[in-house]
Amino acid sequence: MWRILDQIEKNFLSVTKNKNQILSCFENPALQKLNIDVQERILKITIKNPICTQHAPPLSYQKFFLRCLHESVEKFGSEYSDELMKTYTDILATTDDGRISYHSYKIDSFCTITLQEESCIVVKNTTGLQTWEAAKYMSEWCIRNPLNFDRQIVLELGSGIGLLGIVILKFCNPLKYIFTDKSPEVLKLLSSNIEINIHKLENPVIEQHQLFWSDITEKEAHSFYPDVILGADIVFDIDTIGSLVLALKILLIKESACAYIASTIRNPETNNKFLAELGTAGFIYIILKSHEKSIFAYDKSSNFILYKILKLPK
Ligand SMILES: C[S@@+](CC[C@H](N)C(=O)[O-])C[C@H]1O[C@@H](n2cnc3c(N)ncnc32)[C@H](O)[C@@H]1O
Which long-range contacts (CB under 8 A, 24 or more apart) does 191-194 make? Predict the structure, then answer.
């Protein structure tokens, strides 16, 4: 039963919105038709979880989650827990006071990464105020392959609000991590998220820069001098692929440097254009074997690809 409870906790804390995904957890036979004891265990790891008390997910999400639980208990015809009923009515009566809300990613029993996020896909003209699925996929790959970043200078393009970088800082021992993004709103939220998760004493050098792919200069590239470049869900707009590949070309100065780019495949045409531009710019790429996806709660319909990109040997 603990496995399915762990999944429910991860879904809830990370604000997984897919209703079928949530209902299918509740309907798992291990949960014994949601008897009273199970209902109370679910409450304890979700709404009453200390992580939720300290860094609450959006109120609208908490209401939605309890509605799903309520529906499932009703469907099974099980007896309601008084505690569940009380919690549900209390939350329904609470109005949203515009509090900041959080999404928390439980990595293991020792580490949960909590990020302030926006729930809408495009806010203030950027897609960067929420965590995208490819960032989770890439973060999981990095946790499983930490030596690629050990004592390396890592630069992230389009870093958004920081999941990938915070994971690498916590699990992969980089020498320096350079977050970059074009959007000032994104960089502001990123700063708060670094503050929430990284204690001053534990961090290596962390930098944050506003950086447009089309504007990177050779002087800037030399000042960053990265060993590894990362990007999660940054190949999504056919019109910016040219500048992204040019940015990689300028930034990959060191002979041994490489880039890792993870994408959710939505439109094969965009992906094909990216690969064609890489070839024209003199890069080769390897598709990295997909890994077991067990650390994060993923949207089951997402289809990921992770490339390692290198300069053609001279
Ligand atoms: C889909 S979001 C992905 C964010 C994050 N990597 C993640 O996966 O959660 C794309 C990010 O790239 C940034 N971005 C888009 N075009 C850019 C450009 N031309 N130069 C720099 N950053 C850009 C956006 O501001 C946004 O934060």
Answer: 192/116, 193/114, 193/115, 193/116, 193/161, 193/162, 193/166, 194/162, 194/165, 194/166
Residues 6 or more apart from 25 whose CB is under 8 A from it?
4, 7, 8, 11, 31
- Among the atoms of ligand 1, which is closest to the Cα of residue 129? 27
80 CA to middle of ligand 1, Å?
A: 45
Percent of the chain with pLDDT over 90: 88
Per the CB < 8 A criterion, the answer to whether 99 and 59 are in contact is: yes
The angle formed by the CA atoms of residues 14, 15 and 20, to the nearest 5 degrees, is 115
Q: Mean pLDDT for the chain? A: 94
Distance between CA atoms of 258 and 285, rounded to whole angstroms?
10
- pTM across the whole model: 0.94
Site to substitute for ligand 1 among 105, 113, 127, 137, most atoms within 8 A of C-beta: 127
